[in-house]
Amino acid sequence: MSTAQVATDSGRMPRQIRYIIGNEACERFSFYGMRNILVPFLISSVLLGYLPAGPDREGAAKDIFHSFVIGVYFFPLLGGWLSDRYFGKYNTVLWFSLVYCAGHACLALFENNATGFYTGLFLIALGSGGIKPLVVSFCGDQFDQSNKDKAKLVFDAFYWIINFGSFFASLLAPLFLRHYGPAVAFGIPGVLMFIATFVFWMGRRQYVNVPPSTNDPHGFMKVVRSALAWRADGGNAGGIVARGALVLAVAMLLGWAGHATAGWPTWWPESFGFVITACLALGVIIAGGGIGASMQLERARGAHPDAAVDGVRAVLRILIVFALVTPFWSLFDQKASTWIIQGREMVIPHGAWWWPSWLIQDAAQMQALNPLLVMLLIPFNNLVLYPALRRMGFQVTALRRMGWGIAISGVSWIVAGVLQLWIDGGEQVSITWQALPYLLLTFGEVLVSATALEFAYSQAPMAMKGVIMAFWYLTSTFGSLWVLLTNAGVRNDAVTAAIANTGLSENAFLMFFFAGFAFVAAAAFAAYARRYPMQDNYRVSGAG
After folding, report:
1. Angle separating helix axes 398-424 and 306-332, nearest 10 degrees
2. How many CB atoms lie within 10 A of CB 413?
3. What average pLDDT does the structure give for the chain?
4. Which residues cross the membrane (predicted)?
5. Is 304 helix (H, G, I), strand (E, B) or coil?
6. By the 8 A CB rule, do 479 and 338 touch?
7. What global pTM score does this model have?
8. Is the distance from CB of 538 to CB of 148 less than 8 angstroms?
9. What is the pLDDT of residues 190-222, one digit of tens each?
10. Which of 69, 85, 151, 455 lies 20 to 30 A from 499 at CA?
């Protein structure tokens, strides 16, 4: 590990950024290479051979995929905490990357063994999730007040390179699976992850390493505890809210455990497995603790510096923004599950002279449109769209971009729903029609996710950047949670009957449902964004 240092090229682009960008390109190929073939592999694999081909197996594959995504975006909490508290970003990224490599090896070696394969998924979720909040914030650490104007370019470049790796992974991995089998298709991403780890290690002597905060007496949790502590001289409504949330979370977990214990009566729905229950319990704890702390945060003044208390207030505001973004991820992540399943019902126009049949042979490859469009839309937005809007008098703020992105993602699902109606009506629908919802969803993604990388870093207090980035990635966990809850709901006979009464197929109904979910979220986001106070928490030049 290198020692903490400050970039000497004041006002210029940090030279060490190239190693971080190179690492990210290879790691993203690695991740998306395996992720984008996971659902097609599971549908056709012996791992789900106990289920009949068709909706049951497709539904099980979706559940496994979204449970994996939940893990990927849950473990940033662990990585962020270990980094901020003990090891620092560099060491944490390096060690979790080695776990990540081991997970890829398991997928390649155990394609027909459920225990080995699912162990690999767990290790990839742990490794990928552990490094996910840190690489972005580690990149931000290389900047200070003297060159923060270049940070936006790098964050955009960072997001562009993510999609550069994702494009080739989305395009090639389905071909590897089709022509060479799972061992090669999952093995190649493993090799790329090893290269990513090596490239990151190469820059070790040039990085700015902000030291971990260790046991900060004025850290986020210490301030929250002070705010929620019982006092004899006054009420503690906030503490009651927080403790009530904790009791409810424990009751939910005990309710789930009741289904596995003979003779133990339980009120908890049996269709809510451990993953759903644990995520809901986590959400209750975060919401109850945050609401309780915000109710009486001023109590912590005196016991902690004003800056620490104000920092916690800023974090709680950020968490509200993050919560309102979660519906977007419920739409976005289904492009690798629901949209692939829809694409398998569509016709690939191999007979058309303009269709590259030598390259595009599988519905899963349509996902390559997403990163390709991102690479085109980011420079288009920065060089054409945003300047044009500013000349017209519109302020293109980060929060406005994110709100519009959520709404536009809803429009993409309206289009996908219309395509599903055509399919349900018996028409032979060309898969090229999926390009339109992909374009709309990707435009929404650029407005939400690319913007949020800079927003989350700039809004977080210096001592909590790793953790706040972890909370940002946790939004994807709750996005997939909404999908799992919906999948569990449609297995209920009453819900299934209600959907049938609409005259829509289950797939079409759910597509329009998620579109409406996005529109409601966008309206709530816009209402909150109007009163959100923006912060500037870049490192001061000369501070290590």
Report:
1. 20
2. 28
3. 88
4. 37-53, 65-83, 90-110, 116-136, 157-177, 183-203, 240-259, 271-293, 314-332, 368-389, 401-423, 435-457, 469-488, 508-529
5. strand
6. no
7. 0.85
8. yes
9. 999 999 999 999 988 889 888 886 677 887 888
10. 69
